[in-house]
Amino acid sequence: MLAMAAVFAAAFGVILSGCKPAASEVPEVGNSDVQKTRIVIDAFGNEVEVPEHPKRVLALSEVDLDAMLALGETPFGASAGRGQETFPRYLLDQTEGIELMGALYRPSFERVIGARPDLILCGGWMDDGVEKKLRKIAPVVRTYRVDDGWRTALQNVAAALNLQDQAEAFEQAYAERVASIQAELGDSLQQTASIIRWNPKGPAFMHADSFARKITGDLGLGIPEGQDVEGPAHSKTISFENLNLIDADWVFLGTLTGEGDAQRSFDAARSNPAFAQLKAVKSGQVVVVDGSMWTSSGGPIAALQLVEEIHGALK
């Protein structure tokens, strides 16, 4: 945690000054005051007029929530994490006071209206009907496409909030931390890593363009043979007869919810002879991780935390 704190300090210790775009003036949502607005271009090419300094922002994806917190901002409300009933587990210690707006991509419109937002951020997949209803409540900025990386999401969230300098500082701190770990670990990074989501029916590996795979790629860890599949999602469930497909020098394994049928399935697998024969199991290099962070969509805080967890495992 000390290393993490040092990186965040580096990211936000210096905020550069910059020129602000020309602004117009419109009444503030839920307020008789007048506030300035600007035009931003979102991840889907839409021009959106947003408040210059929004005060009641809703972050309706786990990546939007992560990115706002990384920029030093707290949203008024946010959606739950993927497969969870509350905010992503890895962000729970930073979300006190934030109102829950409902499930991921399925917000409660009663709560959204009650929040009186002046800006809504929602990246990734969003039903057109849901988006249309949200746009009647407040300006909506689509912050990233499904296959975009965390850097794109951070940049677009920063643009919507007028915090581009903070985003640049975070990215620089991340790059410096990656370089530091690479220098420290050296040849230890010349290994393969398998990232596994254990579902109720068994394991699936994360594809080459998934969030966590991009982080291991930043560090230089290789992809096992048979797992170099394009796309941001994960494979179909792998049978116990084909467990060798999930093997690697290192296996990072988690369940999305941390409990329930998926966790029970993994617990049962530990006594399976096929699981015991995996190279990573024999060498003691299976690392149980938070699947809500490793096997889902993640933002900048998750990216930095993954780097630290990989460093902790390999050093």
Structure description:
α1 packs across α6, α5 runs antiparallel to α6 (164-185) and α6 runs parallel beside α12 (300-314). The protein folds into 2 domains: 21-161, Rossmann fold, CATH 3.40.50.1980; 186-314, Nitrogenase molybdenum iron protein domain (Rossmann fold, 3-Layer(aba) Sandwich). Mean pLDDT is 87; it is low at 1-7 and 9-32. With 315 residues, it is α/β, with parallel strands linked by helices. The protein is built from 12 helices and 14 strands.
What global shape is seen?
A: globular
**What does the largest sheet look like?**
5 strands, parallel
Topology pattern, helix = H, strand = E: HEEEEHEEEEHEHEHHEEHEHHHEHH
CATH architecture of the largest domain: 3-Layer(aba) Sandwich
- What would you give as the CATH superfamily of the largest domain? Nitrogenase molybdenum iron protein domain
CATH topology of the largest domain: Rossmann fold
Gap from first CA to last CA: 16 Å
Give the tags:
single chain; 315 residues; alpha/beta; Rossmann fold; 2 domains; 5-stranded parallel β-sheet; 4-stranded mixed β-sheet; 14 strands; globular
Provide the fold topology.
Layout lengths: L1 H11 L11 E4 L6 E8 L5 E5 L5 E3 L2 H9 L6 E2 L20 E2 L1 E2 L2 E2 L1 H7 L3 E3 L6 H8 L4 E2 L8 H12 L2 H22 L7 E7 L2 E4 L5 H9 L30 E5 L6 H9 L3 H4 L2 H4 L3 E3 L2 H4 L5 H15 L1
Parallel strand pairs: 4-5, 4-9, 5-6, 9-10, 11-13, 13-14
Antiparallel strand pairs: 1-2, 2-3, 7-8, 11-12
